[in-house]
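Troubleshooting: if your tokenizer reports a length mismatch, compare your output against this known-good record of 235 residues.
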Amino acid sequence: MKFPSPLIEARLIRRYKRFLADVTFADGTEITVAVPNTGSMLGLTTPGSRVLLSKSANPKRKYAHTLEIVEADGTLVGINTGLPNRLAAEAIGAGLVSDLHSYPVVKPEQRYGERSRIDFLLQHPERPPAYVEVKNVHYMREAGLAEFPDTVTARGARHLEELAAMRANGARAVMIYVVQRADCERFRLCADLDPTYAAAFAVAKRAGVEAFVIGCQISADGISPDRVIEMELQD
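Known-good structure output:
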């Protein structure tokens, strides 16, 4: 995935109200930018951090700039939670996620379960449908180890329950965790921050839900899924 135009460098002043941040450019100009991430962004909001911004060509946008990347722990970290679905689609197309590339029909954002939308519904004329859920990962507190989630996510736990229900009904159910940073080669669930999510994952795994972790290379030009990351399962 390439950014449509070069990203713009700035320094983070503060992130607030979940969807906003103040940044400063090298010439001292300060602006407010949109933050496309509803999570805590734990470890990624240190004042003074180098950040990279995209700029919209839409003159009607209230905030023309969007925070895309934060530099942390000596690496670039993608924080835009609107991108992992695109990255997962690229990973599937590249054959990084089991045999999902062999499904000829891919339908994004399909309603399923009781009150959810699945990120992708994959269909094949000779196989059960595959329900694919995608999660963004950018939290790291131990060198080389990506973790999810970085805060409590009741919605994420519900998605696991509904994937398990799809599997019980005979469909294939798949979780894809997209790690938007290049410095991680391992992954595990953050059970101490959200034990409910970890418990829901354990139940889903026993029910036959598959899980894959995809790592990415990050640059100011774009973000590209390029490898499978080992998932450490916990008791």
